[in-house]
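Summary for the steering committee. One of the milestones for this cycle was to obtain a three-dimensional model of the protein with adenosine monotungstate bound, which we needed before selecting residues for the alanine scan. The sequence and ligand used are listed below.
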Amino acid sequence: MSTYRFGQQIIKSSVVFFQTELSFALVNRKPVLPGHVLVCPFRPAERFRDLKPEEVADLFQTTQKVADVVEKHFNATSLTISIQDGPEAGQTVKHVHVHVLPRKAGDFDRNDKIYDELQRHDKGTEDVPTKWRSEEDMATEAADLKKYFI
Ligand code: AMW
C-alpha cells in the first residue's frame, strides 16, 4: 500500500512501521516523548465504540506488539498507553488511534503530567507545521522500528 488514511489526512508509507490486516502503526509528527507512536485501525472509524470486535482485537494485539518494541528501542522501562476518545477527551483526529508512549524514571516531574501534555501537544499554537518533525526524521525512525517486525 503506498499511502494510508488517518482521519482526513493522507499518510505516506515511509512513516508507517508495522501493519496487520486491520491495523497500522505510524510514528508521530509531534511526539510528546521520544518513541511516542500511534496505532490505528485501517477503517477510519471515529470513536472507539464504532469498532467491530475483530478490529478491537487486532488494534490491541497490534498495540501490544508495538508497545513492546518501542519500550525496548527507546530504552524505556514502562509505557503509557492511551486513547483520547472524543473531542472533550482531547481527540483531534477523527479516526480512532492508540497513543503509545515509552516511559522512563524522571521523564516528567509529575508522572500524570503526560496527560496534560497529550491534551496540549497537538492543539492551537502547538499544532503548527514549524513544530512538526521533518518527514525525513520520521521516515528514519519508522525504518529503525520496522526492523523489529521482520
Ligand atoms: W489525538 O489529540 O486526536 O488523540 O492525537 C492525534 C495525534 O496524531 C497527535 O499525537 C498528533 O501529533 C498526531 N498526528 C496528527 N497528524 C499526524 C500526521 N500526519 N503524521 C503523524 N502524526 C500525526
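Key point for the committee: Helices lie at 53-73, 113-120, 135-146.
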